[in-house]
UniProtKB/TrEMBL annotation:
Domain (START): residue spans on this chain: 206-362
Protein name: START domain-containing protein
Cross-referenced InterPro entries: EDR2-like, EDR2_C, START-like_dom_sf, START_lipid-bd_dom
Amino acid sequence: MDAGAGGSVLNKSGSERSEDGGGIFEYFGWVYHLGVNSIGHEYCHLRFLFIRGKYVYMYKRDPSNNPAIKPIRQGVVGPTLMVEELGRRKVNNGDLYVLRFYNRLDETKKGEIACASAGEARGWIEAFDQAKQQAENELSRGVSARDKLNIEAEINLEGHRPRVRRYAHGLRKLIRIGQGPETLLRQSKVAVRPDGFEGDSGDAVEAQQWKCVLAMAGIRIFEDISDHKNGSVLAKSVGVIDATADTVFEVILSTEQQKRYEWDTLMCDLELVDSYDGHYDVVYGTYDSKYLSRWHSKQDFVFSRQWFRGQDGTYTILQFPAIHKKKPRRSGYRRAKVNPSSWEIRNLTTSVASNSPRCVVTHTLEIHSASWCQWKNNRSSKFERSIPYALLCQVAGLKEYIAANPPLHHENATTIVHSKISDASISSTEYEDEMQDEFYDAITADSSTSDEESDDDEKLVLQEPRVKLKNISWAITTLALKRTAAPDLSEELDPHVTPIRIPSDLHGSLHKGKDDNDTNCWTSPSGKGFMIRGKNYLKDSSKVVGGDPLLRLVAVDWFTVDKAVDRIALHPKCLVQTQAGKKLPFILVINLQVPAKPNYSLVLYYAADRPINNNSLLDKFVNGSDTFRDSRFKLIPSIVEGYWMVKRAVGTKACLLGKAVTCKYFRQDNFFEIDVDIGSSSVARSVIGLVLGYVTCLVVDLAILIEAKEEAELPEYILGTVRLNRLKLESAVTFPV
């Protein structure tokens, strides 16, 4: 694998296709298998991973070039499989993007693979999600009990698999895309993908009002004219770049000096100081201010970077000024404070005929209002020779740099061999007996004790500063807001039952706010601040302003706990177990488990005035399978008031919580509880850590929905909302034992 100090990165070659004959999803390519062997040594093996439907195979070599080869790992992707993006990790001086697989019901079953780029990691996440959906579809179609048992059954991975070998023999005509490991060791190339996403900016209505004040070099510079507080103003530069968001993200994060010299006039001499949890690092930099003003001395600076990728593929990078004990001020330099700033990189949807990916890059930063206003009033002022101006111009530098480097915005050359495997492939029932192991079980088997896993003749020698790959004869060497459209909610709750009056004296540990000026409280806003799917969403992707929630928020609990607590509704002192609670037709309990020191639980109680109507979408969600719930449980966040960097971190895009974090569901009597483990995702932990640091000055709105995916379910409706007004961490009460 790549570990070279010279910056060479070993890429995975991958392909995705769906057979016309059987509609079976396939994805395959090179990855790194990470782990620790029985004697405690870490290993990193280059492996060829192949997904076919819900089945996953891991090979030491490309099976299309080695028909007789057997898989060394194999398993099925079941409904309980979770894929977590762990971010970047240093492996022998090479940066890899790590994915963790685990069973949400048993996190001791886990394993890791890694990719050379963020785009490849995203591709594998989507591939495993597709495989998981196929497994879920088979279960929903009512497959045999024997098939269902295969999802959890374990087998001896060292046994012979003649049917799998016969299947591997048929792979020789599969599509090959990209370069193999031997070529990639010699070259440093960034793999790009032309995937596009819808260009909507979010699912909540933002209060900021942006005005374009300057257009230059293919970018536009905006000012937020809605409010100027604390002597600062928000400005942003926006440009369209002919590359994928994955590519631009990696260029921005790279600290390689020669590359940054080509586009960054300010932060080109950077040094990585420290890295934490794959989504956070600290960087030290220097610059000679003679490029801005000949009267200034040389300066150095330290800043932190925090990044995450949304479910729609949008990257967010937050940059804060920082202090680090390893990097005191250098002698002869003046310590500068870098302006707080953020990057947002969002893919644009391109036409089917177009082969060129595009993305919108937005760089937002906080500027002292005096210098900004002086520049606006007098364009010949010194602002154009200032640090904020240089930061705003980084987007223009990126745009020109990528335009001048075709490998960054064009796909790698491909060799495509049309396949007829669908005619000769065997059905899943022919080899399902050989594939009973869950995928995370397969990839966590101890590689040091298995002859199958050893790298005798193709060992990757991990040495510094170069990587040597012995005997790679098997490698591939050539290759605008809509009007409100209120949904008909009469079918969600039983129309034949007379609505009851929900008691007003229900309460939790957090009090209900009296007005907007009240603090450390909750209220229930209308849905007008949220954008949800309209009646014609499947045709034109149109969204409409949300209406009133279906359920009424009746109480909120704010607890401190030693460790995450599930099934809070069963506690005898819980609101659900009171006499008033038992008389309610239906209660939805949302238990948001917040990781911190100490841990917190924010428990929301939503009540209905009538029972749930049979066969409604709400009924399918409450009484359906966990698989269905994971695919539909949606939350839209919005920071109504608060620090702008926190707003950027949280965003306003809807999130399918069941796919982002571990959710546990519990249905009993007249209630339905959802326990949301925010700490199960490293990205979510990172964001919530930032939010808790500013929580006392934040006004946060949340909307709970069941995502509509079929025409009969549209338009969407909001299940419930909550506004949390400047919470105080110390006000949380200890959970009763």
